[in-house]
């Protein structure tokens, strides 16, 4: 095996020989999810500030290299033997994480993660920071209920060993199934990093009618079928629904077939697929209202990006995901799985005056924009470093 395949092997040219922080999670770039993007932006931001950052993750795509440097972050991938629903079998992952932890001051673990308890037990002398993003969600059924309980126990085991537990908000933490465990550790609420996506061109608009948009992974937990039902009950022939997001490489699979059946022959509904780069800015510039109809959500980076672009969101009233709307007053909250309430709120937000949109964007940018998330991580990590400095 070459050093490129195994950069921790003897003779490797890997630099540096020691890391300030090793980030551990299942999926990393180029995979896209809210959790992955939060981990990536934090890791790359710290690397740009002079921190030596490693990421240890699964080689979820066999075409990806076992080791590479992405925007200053050293990414180590462990081979996957098999995929199971949203997870996988990778005995090499916790072992690789242990070897990197031995070369690191801090291990920053992103949960939920089925390997979390083992990696926490193998971290050695490294300090442990856990970011708990969300309670794991699987469609209801006896096997899935058992699976969720098992992952909860794994996460609780890791949380018990953590020096610091980070969540998107205290609201998210208190609403979690594992709150009784989290509350016994040092809790540090830090909102997920949100990128300013304003300034795009309305290239996805089709006419002058109301344009409603959703962006995210096309999966069951996003509740998109309720959005489609809400939209289809709107009789306006000029209205449009843009549903943007990946449905081809989603961990655990996508429910795109069921959603296409929900959409039926309605020509007003468009599935755009995954958007990247400037196309994301153009998406926000093309819509009048953003919808986040999730039945499981802990923050919703996309709704904050919409806010920062001046687009009012309609989100479900769930612990964590309601926090951006509740803290800014920009947008509306509706019960999950309620197409009628969703429709009425979308129509109400469609008539929001321009000056209120500008004010909402300014408030959201002040609360969630910039590098406040990075400053908070850096301050927390410095307190755990030997001597408190790099």
TrEMBL record:
Domain Glycosyltransferase subfamily 4-like N-terminal intervals: 34-178
EC main group: transferase
EC assignment: 2.4.-.-
InterPro entries in UniProt: Glyco_trans_4-like_N, Glycosyltransferase_grp1
Keywords, ordered alphabetically: Glycosyltransferase, Transferase
Organism encoding this protein: Streptomyces glycanivorans
Xref: PANTHER family: SULFOQUINOVOSYL TRANSFERASE SQD2
Protein name, UniProt field: Glycosyltransferase family 4 protein
Gene Ontology molecular function: any one: glycosyltransferase activity
């Amino acid at each position: 095996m070459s050093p490129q395949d195994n950069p921790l092997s003897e003779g490797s040219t890997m630099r540096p020989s020691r890391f300030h922080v090793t980030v551990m999670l299942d999926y990393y770039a180029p995979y896209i999810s809210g959790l992955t993007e939060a981990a990536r932006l934090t890791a790359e931001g710290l690397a740009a500030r002079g921190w030596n950052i490693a990421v240890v993750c699964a080689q979820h795509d066999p075409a990806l290299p076992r080791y590479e440097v992405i925007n200053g972050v050293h990414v180590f991938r462990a081979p996957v033997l098999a995929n199971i629903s949203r997870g996988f079998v990778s005995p090499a992952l916790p072992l690789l994480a242990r070897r990197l932890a031995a070369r690191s001051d801090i291990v920053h673990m992103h949960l939920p993660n089925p390997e979390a308890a083992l990696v926490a037990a193998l971290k050695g002398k490294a300090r442990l920071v856990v970011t708990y993003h969300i309670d794991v969600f699987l469609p209801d059924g006896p096997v899935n209920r058992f699976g969720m309980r098992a992952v909860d126990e794994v996460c609780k085991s890791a949380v018990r060993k953590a020096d610091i537990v980070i969540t998107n908000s205290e609201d998210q933490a208190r609403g979690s199934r594992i709150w009784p465990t989290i509350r016994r550790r040092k809790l540090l609420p830090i909102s997920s990093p949100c990128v300013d996506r304003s300034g795009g061109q309305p290239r996805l608009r089709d006419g002058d009618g109301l344009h409603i948009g959703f962006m995210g992974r096309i999966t069951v937990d996003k509740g998109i079928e309720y959005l489609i039902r809400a939209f289809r009950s709107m009789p306006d022939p000029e209205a449009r629904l843009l549903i943007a997001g990946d449905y081809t490489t989603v961990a655990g699979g996508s429910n795109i077939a069921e959603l296409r059946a929900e959409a039926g022959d309605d020509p007003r509904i468009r599935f755009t697929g995954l958007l990247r780069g400037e196309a994301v800015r153009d998406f926000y510039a093309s819509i009048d209202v953003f919808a986040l109809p999730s039945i499981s959500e802990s923050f919703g980076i996309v709704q904050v990006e919409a806010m920062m672009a001046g687009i009012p969101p309609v989100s479900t009233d769930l612990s964590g995901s309601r926090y951006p709307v509740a803290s800014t007053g920009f947008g509306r909250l509706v019960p999950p799985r309620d197409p009628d309430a969703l429709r009425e709120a979308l129509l109400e937000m469609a008539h929001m005056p321009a000056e209120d949109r500008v004010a909402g964007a300014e408030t959201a940018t002040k609360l969630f924009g910039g590098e406040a998330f990075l400053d908070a991580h850096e301050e927390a990590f410095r307190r755990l470093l030997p001597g408190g400095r790099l």
